[in-house]
Amino acid sequence: MTEPGTRNAAAPSNRFLADGQCCLPGIYGGVGPLSHTQFEQQLLAARHRRGARTDQDHPVWLLVSASSTPNRMASLAGTGENAEPYIRHYAQVIEKAGADVLFVICNTAHAYHSAVQRTLRIPWVHLMDITVGHIRDTWPSLRAVGVLGTDGTLNTQLYHRALQKRGLVAIAPGVSTEPQRLVMDAIFEPTWGIKATGANISDRARRGLATAAEWCAGQGAQVVVAACTEVSVGLTPDQFSTVPLVDPLAVAAEVLLDLAYGIRDPGEFLVRDV
After folding, report:
1. Rounded-to-integer distance, Cα 240 and Cα 169, Å
2. Residue 14: its pLDDT value, please?
């Protein structure tokens, strides 16, 4: 592993980074189609809030759109091709290209975090860990957190475990229940689901996600986490405002900027199991 406070030996000279930048982030995108484009929009918006007004005010980052990565949910269920070799391969491509830290813009892919992290010298920032940390810091007295994600994310308990470690309770619809069917259809339905329609998010998908979020709130959730990048895209405050929405991509954007400009140290994110 790269020692805390040191840079990947393959990283380009700081001369070619943005002014003040000391860490080069790598982004594993393409999982699904809107994942990294949504994340990059979050990055640009967050950097603008921090004062960026020109091209050169934004950090340099590396991106691989690894759209060939097999469906993570089917991989975990044993009904599709194993996604782990692809995730490992493209994570190593990003590392070899010179990234100092890795962001994987897919929630379900974090089921492979520990196995892939062992093959890397740079830290893979754990999305559940930083999201739950943000929730705990922002709402210290909060107890119950709604989780809207794929069956794979729910079955692997990715958010449940991260929340439990910080004394929080996950409220998520059970797999095969009606609220969860609404989430899965909004993501995967082949004609109007978000993966199928790209940037043109259907009203039906948005309504389904909002209904599922209302179910979480009705069960006592005090915030709702968009625990899938398609949920990040399709569930917005204009559709659902009963309780605050937490977008892991927005949280990750702030962490990436902190790392890029040396506000936080990559060594902080050498997490193997969450």
Report:
1. 21
2. 83
